[in-house]
Design brief:
alpha+beta; ATP12-like; ATP12-like fold; four-stranded antiparallel sheet; 10% strand; globular
Length: 236
């Protein structure tokens, strides 16, 4: 499926059983991923939601208006086949996790970060066994090996669909901890986005927001929301 709009070439989109999985069909023909794999997902609810994206298209099919279709394709074409590489990429976020790098000033931002971010690091310690170190400034800090090992073990327990949502959220938020909190049900998508944008929100309160920054924030919010929806629908 191209990333550019294409003329709508079908009349009807619907979900259908496909062995133990569910597929999406356009006029009876199965949708395929960009790599040519059948677009088959684990639950009927997810297949129906993807079919609804196709059904909602007008005279043109616009892939950027079809986030679940894109995420499902990513899961099937990239996350599953390249699982070990994806796990390694996700662990890179642990070394540079947004929540671990704090401001030294002004005092109200320092307080806001501590009040809103520290509970998530405490949760990672207590629920995941990952006691990550927070520091002031942007100089990289080495995280304890036991904490990294605990995070790696947690990631290895996730299936392709959870890893897909995790990867999308970690990339959008700049935080593995926030992504894990979403996947584990500690946070909702709106909360994860708001926490990932704490610094930006503070700057907007001080200086206002330009259109380019607003567009970027809207894109990140949509990405995290789509990841949250994928989690819900893939769970059945």
């Amino acid at each position: 499926m191209t990333s550019r709009p294409i003329k709508r070439f079908y009349k009807r989109a619907e979900a259908a059983p496909a062995g133990p999985a569910f597929s999406v069909r356009l006029d009876g023909r199965p949708v395929r991923t960009p790599a040519g794999r059948p677009l088959e997902v684990p639950t009927q609810a997810l297949a129906e939601a993807i079919a609804a994206e196709w059904e909602a298209q007008g005279t043109e099919v616009k892939p950027h208006h079809m986030p679940l279709t894109q995420l499902a394709s990513t899961a099937l074409d990239r996350i599953g086949p390249e699982r070990e590489a994806i796990l390694a990429q996700l662990m890179n976020y642990a070394a540079t996790d947004l929540l671990c790098y704090r401001a030294g000033f002004p005092p109200d931002l320092v307080e806001r970060q501590a009040r809103q971010w520290q509970p998530l690091l405490d949760w990672a310690r207590d629920a995941l066994g990952a006691d990550l170190v927070a520091t002031e400034g942007v100089i990289a800090v080495a995280q304890p090996e036991p904490a990294l090992a605990a995070l790696a073990a947690r990631l290895r327990g996730y299936d392709t669909w959870r890893l897909t949502a995790l990867q999308m959220t970690a990339a959008a938020a700049g935080s593995l901890v926030l992504a894990l909190a979403l996947v584990e049900g500690r946070l909702g998508a709106d909360q994860a986005f708001a926490l990932s944008q704490l610094d930006e929100t503070y700057q907007i309160e001080q200086w206002g927001e330009d259109h380019e920054a607003a567009d970027r924030r809207a894109t990140l919010a949509r990405d995290i929301a789509a990841a949250g929806r994928l989690l819900t629908l893939a769970a059945g």
